Amino acid sequence: MSLDSLVPIAPARVRALLLPVGQIKRDRFASFVQRLSQEHVVQLRDISADGRPNRNKFSPLAFPDGAIFYDLVTHVPPPSHLALSPFDLYREPLVIIAIADGTELEKEPLSKRQSVNGHAPTTVEQNIRFLYQELENLRDSHGKALSHHVLIFDYVPPGDAEVPIPEGVKTIPPVEKSKTTTMKTIMCDISSLLLAEMTTLARSFEAMTVIDTPGHSTRPQMNTSSWTVDESNPSSRRNSQFAAPTVARSSSSSGVVDKSQSRMSMPVFKGLPFGSNGSTPTGRPSTPVRSGLSNPPTNFDDANGGGPASPEHKSSSRPSTPEDVKSPKGQDKVAVQGFGPGGLNERWRNKGKGRVSILIGSMYLQAGRWTDALKDLVEGTTVARSLNDHIWHGKGLELITVCLLLLGWAGVEFVVPTICLANDKSSSNKFAEPENVIPDQPAWLRHLQQALPDLLEKIIGLYCRVSGEQLPLVSLSETVIRLCSCMTALHICEGKVDKRFLEMAISGKFPAEPLTTSPRLSVTPSRSYIVNVLFKAFPSSLAELLTTVDRAIILSGIASVLGTLGFQRKKAMVVRELVSVLISGLIEARTRGAAEVGIHPAAGLVGLDAVSGQGNGSGALELGEGDIEQGVDSFLGLLCRTYGVVGYDGACAPKSSSSLSSGDSNDAVIARIQNQSAARHFGMPMVKLNILRACINFSEALPDFNGVLRFSSDLLRTAGSGVAPGPRREDAAPIIHRDEQLRLVNNISKTSLLSTRLGLGNLSAEYWDEFLIRDITLDPLPPTRAPEPHAKSVLPGSNAVRTSQDVNPFIYNPFLRPPNKALLDQTIVAGEAAVFRITIQNPYEMDLDIESIKLDTEGAAFEPTAESTIIGPYRTQILKVTGTPKEAGDLKVTGAVVRVRGCRERRFPIFKQPWAADTQVKVKGFGYELDSHQCTARGCGQIDLTSPICGDDLGRRATDIFCYLAKSINRDPSGSSPFSFQDSTQGPLQTAILNRDATPAELYEYELVLAKKQALRRRKVDEGQRYIPPGETRTFDFEILGKPGLTSGTIQIDYAHLGVPQDEIKDKFHTRQVCLDLAVTVNASVELARIDILPIQGDVPQPLWRSIGVEQTETDTPIDSDKYCLLMMDLRNAWPSNMEVRLEAANCFAIEEHILPGNTNRIVFPVPRVYLEDPHAFIPAINPSRQRQFVVSTSKITPETERANREAFWFREKVIDSLKASWKTLSGPPRAGIVELRGMRLTPRQIEAVKIDEVGIELSVEPISSGSATSSDSSDGSPSASENYISVDDFVQIRLRLTNRTLQPIYPTVRVMPALAHRPLNVALDFTRKFAWNGTLQQTLPLLGAHATTEVCIGATALCRGDFELMASVEETRVWVDEGPAKKAEGGGRQRSSTQAMMDAWLGAKERRVWHSRHKCLVQVRD
Known about the structure:
By secondary structure, the chain is an alpha+beta fold. The chain folds into 6 domains: 10-281 and 298-319, no CATH class; 370-658, no CATH class; 770-789 and 824-934, Immunoglobulins (Immunoglobulin-like, Sandwich), CATH 2.60.40.10; 793-813 and 939-1002 and 1024-1072, no CATH class; 1086-1245, no CATH class; 1253-1373 and 1408-1422, Immunoglobulin-like (Sandwich), CATH 2.60.40.10. The protein contains 28 helices and 46 strands. The strands form 10 sheets. Strands 2-3-1-4-5-6 form a 6-stranded mixed β-sheet, sandwiched between helices. Helix 3 (123-141) links the parallel strand 4 and strand 5. Helix 4 (182-206) runs antiparallel to helix 6 (344-366), helix 6 packs antiparallel against helix 7 (370-386) and helix 13 (548-565) runs antiparallel to helix 14 (568-597). It starts with 12 loop residues before the first strand and ends with a strand.
C-alpha cells in the first residue's frame, strides 16, 4: 500500500513517527523501517482490547471488520501542517516509535553515566536501561503523542542471565528467528495501547464547547506552542498515563520548531533533545494518580488552559495555574444579550457540538470503527449544514466519503446517508437504476456509484465557498488533490465502483500504464472536468501564503494526477514550475545556511558542505547522503524524459572509472543510439535545452555534483546532431552557440576535478557522442616480415598419410603464397609492437581533450599503449596507437577505451559507415569489427639461403638430388615448417582441372600427375633435422623429377619458432617465408609408341618364352591361357645413348630389352588377366573438393558409351598397376628413370582379351564306365585337358561346371551346343543323326549364389566316329534385384533412396547378360 500523504483515504490513517535511538547505522535503520512498513495495516480482529473500564471507547471488539492504517514517517511534520490540527487530525503524530539496533547492545555502553537504579551487571542490561531513559526523554519532548515505544530489533537474549525488559520497551528477534506473526504482534500491541489512549483525547474534545477552524482562532491564547513539548512545562503532555489534571493544546500556526527537530531520520547525536541529557528513569505508575475521569474539564477553557471560549464566557482558574497569575478583570463579566433558545450563544454552542461530533467521527475513522464513525460524522455534518458552517460541512462530507470507501473495501453493507445526496432526495426515489449495471454488484455499491461524482463536486464547492472563514491554502490544495485522485480512479474504472476502484482508492496505486490521449466522452467524471477541478489546487505565486516545502508537495501531487490521466504535457508544465520553486528555495536555504556559518553565499558549490562536513552537496537542505540519489535524481530524470531530453541511458555512471560499465557492449550501445534517435524526434529542441539549463541550475543550487555533470553532458548530447557524418553528406553541427559549448565543457572539467580534490571519488560525466570512433585499421608489415597462417595438420607427423611434398596439393596449398591477393585476416606477431590507426570524430565546435585512448581487444592477451591527444573542432582526425600481443591466439579489436577530460573512461565501438536517423527512426547496420589474427610468440626469426648445388639436364621421369644450405640468424632456434614447392607444370594442370568440358577420366589423370608425380620433393630423412639451432647451418636434400613441360621451380621454406611441443599447438600456427628459385631442363627418354593386347590360344612351351627373354621371378609354372594374355609394346629410345628397359608383371615375369638411340623395339610380354567386380563404377576424384557420392560425365553421351568408358578406365588402371617399367642409360652420364605407361589406351577388343568373365564355364566329357574308354580330364580346363577320346555307341556324360565370381546371385539358363569339328557352320550344326543326348541341351538352373559353383550333367552317345566339339553359353533368366532395403522400409526402417533409379538413368537400366565359354571341348570318337 502506498504511504503517499495525498491518497484519498489519508484522513483515515494514523501517523506514527519513527526515530532512531542509541547506536544505529543508517542502512540498519532503513531495514527496520521496512520491516515495520510491511505491517502498517492492522486488523481490529487481531487487536486485544484494553482491560481498563475507562479505556474502552474505541474498543476493537465493537467492529472486528475494521482496520487501522498507519502512516509511518521518519521526520517531524512541518509547523504549517501541525497548525491544521485538530481540523486535520491525521497530520499530527499520535504514536512515537523509537528504533534501536539489538546488535549494538553487546559492543559498548551507550552511556557512561550510572543509573539511579544501581549498577547494571552486564553491558546489555546497562544499555537497555539507557534506552528506557531515552524513552522517558521522548515522552517529555513529544508529550502530545498518545503512545511511546522503543523497539529493539535483532535482539538476542544473552544465554548467561535473563535481562529484565522495562515497560514500553519491546524486543524483536532477527529475521531468521522471527515467526510470520512477530511483527504483526508488535503492531497489534502498539495499536491496543493507542486505542486505549484515544479515549482520553476523545473526552478532551467532548469537553470543548468551540473548536476553531485553522487560521481563524477567536481565542489568542490557543495553539501558541509547538508540537514538541517544552521540557520546562511537562504538564502539557497529552498521554493519559502521565497527564496532568489539565490538557493544554495548541492551534497557532506561527510557532517555530527547533531546527534540530526538523529532521529525525539521522542517528542520534549529542545535540538532539532525546539524547543523553542527564535524565534518569523514575518509577512511574501504570495508571495515573489522578485520572481524567475524576475531574474532567467542564468546558473548552479548562481543557486547553486558554482564554474564554466566547466573548460572553469567562475563564475559570486551573489547578495547575500559579496563584499569582490572575485573569483580566474584563473577562469576569458575562454578557446576557442573546440568551435563550435560538440566541447567539445557543447557535455558538450547537456549532461547537457539531464540530466536536465531526472530530469524534474522525477519531473513530482512524481507529477502524467505521460504522461508529459514519454515525457521528452524519450527525455532526447535519448540524454544520444547518448552521451554514461550510468548511466543517465539507470536512464532514469528506470524512463520510472516506468512511464509505473503507466500508465498501471491507465488504460491509452500508446505506448512503441522505446528506450525501444531491438536493436531499427522499429515500423512496433517491436512487435510479443505472444505465450500465455491473453483474454481481451489491446494491450499496451501486448507490455509492451514483452518488459519488456529485458528492465529490459538492465537497470541493463547500471548501471553496466564500464565507467568513477560509481554509488554509495547504489544506485546501491537498484536499482537492485527494478528491481528484479519487475521481481519477473512478474515471480509470469507467465510472464503476467495483473492486478495482476500491483497491485504487484505498491503496493509492494506479496502473503503471497511464491513459492515452483518446477521448473517453462516455465516462463520468470526464478527464477535462477532473483537470479543471485539479488546477484549483495550483498554488498562488505569493510566497508568503505557502512555504517552499508545501508548494513542492502540492505541485508534485498535481503532476502525479495529471500523469495518471495521460496529460503528459500539462504534467511537464507543472513539473517545470516545481523545478523553479525548488531552485528558489534552494538558493534561499543556501544563503541562510551560508549566513549562519559565516561565509559568503557565492563561495562556490562546496562552501556549505565543507563547513558541515558533508561532501555530497546536501548540506544546504540538511538532506541525507542517499536522498539526492533516491529522490531528486529520479525526479529530475522524470522531468527530462517527459520533455524528451536526449539522455545517456537513464542509469547513473559508475563511481569508479577503472571498471567499464556493462552498458558499453555493442548491443547496449546500439540500443542506446536507437533510444537517443527516437528521443531526438520527440518534442521541441529549444524547450529541451531550457529544461536542461534549469536542471543544471537546480543541481548547482543543491549543490549536486553528479547532477551538474549529468545534465551538462545531456545538454551537449541534446544539442548535437547524433549522426555519424560521411564525406559531404550530413550536417553534424550542434544547435547551441560555441560559447555555451565551451562553458559546458569547462564546467564538466572543473566539477570533476573539484570532486576529486574534495575526496568525493572520481565523479565524471558520460561522453555525449556515441560515434566517437569511426574506424580502426592495422598498419601492414613489410612483405618480408608478414607472417603467414597454417593449419596444424600441415606439420610433419600430423597426418599418417603424407606425400613427399608434406602437404596435399589439391584445393589449397597452405604454404604457397597466393599472388596479388590481399589477406582477409591481418596478422601480427606476438612480442612485437603493432601500429594501429584510429579515426576519431569531433562534430562540436570546441577542442576535445582526450586524456587517454587505447585499444579494446578480445581473445589473446594484448597490452595496449595509452595515448593522449587533442581533437580540433568539427573535424575527423587519425591517431596512431601501438600495442603488443603477449601470447599467440586470435585477437579481435572491438573498439577503443577512451577517457575524455571530465568524462568517464568507457569503451566505444567502431562505427565505420556513415549513419543518420530517418524520420521513421530506422536504425541501419551498426558496428564494424577488425579481426587481427596474430602468430606464435617469438616464432618469426630470420634464415639465409645459399645457392643450390644441382646436376646437369634431366630426362623425363628421371630423378636427381640437389641440396641447399640454411643458416639461422635469429636468437631463437628456428624450426622450418613443411616445405612447399611450385613448378611450371602446376599451372597448366590446374587450368585443365578447371575445364568444365574435361571427362572424369581426364580429370583423374590431371589430378594424379599433380598429386603423385611432384616435380620437387624432399628426401625422406630424420624429421629432427628440420630444426636449426641459433646461428648454425644445416643442409637439406631434395629430389627433382623430370616431367614434360618442367622448366622452372620454386622451393618455399616456412620457418618459425613454435615455442611449444608440436602436440600442444592449437588449431593454427604462423610462419615467415623465404623462397629459392630453380631453372630446370628436361629432355625426352623412353617413349611408348604403340600397345596391343592379345589372348593366348593354346599352350606355349616354356623354352619359347625364354627365347624371347621372359624370365620367371617365381617357380616355373605353366602360363595358363585363362589367366594370362599377351602384351605387345613398341618402345622408342629418344635419349642420345643406349638404353636398357626392364618390364615386370605382377612380380612374376620380367623382361629386359636394349634399345639403341633413335630406334623402336617391340616387346612381347605375358601379363595376368584382370577380373573386376564392378567395371562400371564411377571414376573417383583425387581432389577432395570434387569427391561426391555419385559422379556422372558432364558430356551428353549415351549410357552405352558411358559404360564403355568406365570399363576401359578401370581395366587400364588394373593393367598399369600390374606393370612396372624402368630404364637406365648404358653409356654416358648415369641416368635412370621410369617409363611412363599411362599413355596407353585400351580398345574394346583389348579389353575383351584382358578381362575375366563374371561367370566361369568349364566343359568336360566323362565316360559312365571307366573300362569302356579312355578319357583325359583336368579340372583346370586347359586346352590339352579338353581333348576326350570315346568309342562309338558308348554312353558318356557331358559335365558343365558354372562358377559365379560376382558378389550378387544370378539366375542362369545353360545352353550346351554340340557341333561337328572342322566343318563350315551350315554343315557343323547338322549333327542330329551323328550325336545323341539324353534330355534337353537348354536348362534353367536355380539361383546361383555369390561365389558359388554348380554342375550340370547331360547323358550323350556318339553314333559315328569323327571329331566333335562342345560349346556352352550361360544367360541370365532375369535380373536379380536386392529386396532387402525394400522390406526394411516396409518394416519401419529408413526409406530406401532412389540410388538405383539414378544409376539406371546414368548407365541405362540393367539388362540380362550372356557369357560364352572361351575354349571348345574337343571329343574324338573312335570305333
